Amino acid sequence: MKIAHLSDLHLGKRVNEFSMLEDQRFILKQCLEIMDRERPDAVILAGDIYDKSVPPAEAVTLFDDFLCGLAERRLEVLVISGNHDSPERIAFASRLLGSEGIHLSPVYGGSIEPVTLMDSHGPVRFWMLPFIKPMHVRRFFPDETIESYTDALRVAVSAMPLSPEERNVLVTHQFVTGAERSESEEVSVGGSDNVDSSVFGAFDYVALGHIHGPQNIDSERIRYCGTPLKYSFSEAEHEKSLTIAELEAKGSLTVRTVPLIPLHDLREIRGTYMELMARENYAGTNTADYLHITLTDEEDIPEVMNRLRTVYPNLMKVDYDNRRTRHQAEIDAAEDVERKSPMELFGELYEKQNGAPLSEEQRAYAIALMESIREGRT
């Protein structure tokens, strides 16, 4: 069985106040062209379909167009909600669309019925588990001890009537321990949303969403396909792709990628103002790409953004790297604070006040307390 694995479309997203809708429309059309060449049996969309739980109308229309394009190709499509999505909105009309091969994950209710597809080797069971938190699972399993995200996933998976003799594919949207994050992803309290990969031991392939960089966890059996587009400059070096997973007989899996070429790349360049504005230095490059420019001039250039945009119309961000900026410790410290999780900031504050770091017991208590506040339990 050939599976096309996508996730984290983030339809409707804006990056540095630039709308990504045109770029998203372009890349989804490219995905449909890849489907025509690859002819997969199933297409997985592993969460974060939209960038907001209440997406703009244009984003909903774009997703509708994409689903229609997949349905026209008679493909089986499996869609789950991610942490950016409203699970109720993603689940809308799921019972009607299922008969047309468009399978939308319902709101998590404690039990999951698989979507079963057949190939020459027999059935493949697809288990669609949307983004969940411990509180989502705890309400359906009051007798279980569910304190962490790993506990929640373990209990949710244990409730699935898996047959070990059959091929099982899990579609889910979580942060698995060891995954390399990007700045555009949400950071939780002290890494409390980590899920240990051991909970996925019963599955032949785990199609993950949530992390923006394409990567395997432990082996190619547990796979983040990544976003189809770059959504922050921390992703500038990523090579975006669509993942193709092929299941043969039980125990046989091959995974490969098909490159995705964006309408506008997202890049970082640096140099002096005069160097970057010299035609010989930008000729032959795509000056319409989304850019973060770092200027190395010692003096600020008046109206620099407007001037640079005469050559680079989609310039998103300008910084300086010179003697002055390298010695502005306050600015560096402020930027560092923005990158740190609440738990890291609390740990630093505690150590400054007490002259010693948090103990493991104190750290675990603080994480649990912060998580309970986020979930509204206190």
Query: How many structural domains can be distinguished in the coordinates?
Result: 3
How widely separated are the two ends? 47 Å
Based on secondary structure, the structural category is alpha/beta
CATH superfamily of the largest domain: Metallo-dependent phosphatases
CATH class of the largest domain: Alpha Beta
Outline the biggest β-sheet: 6 strands, mixed
The multimeric state of the shown protein is: single chain
State the total count of DSSP E strands. Answer: 19
Helix content: 25-40%
Your description of this structure?
The protein contains 13 helices and 19 strands. With 378 residues, it is of the alpha/beta class. It folds into three domains: 2-259, Purple Acid Phosphatase, chain A, domain 2; 266-326, no CATH class; 329-374. The strands form five sheets. The chain has a six-stranded mixed sheet with strand order 6-5-4-1-15-16. A six-stranded mixed sheet has the order 7-8-9-12-14-13, with no helix packed on it. The termini are far apart. The model has no long low-confidence stretch (mean pLDDT 91).
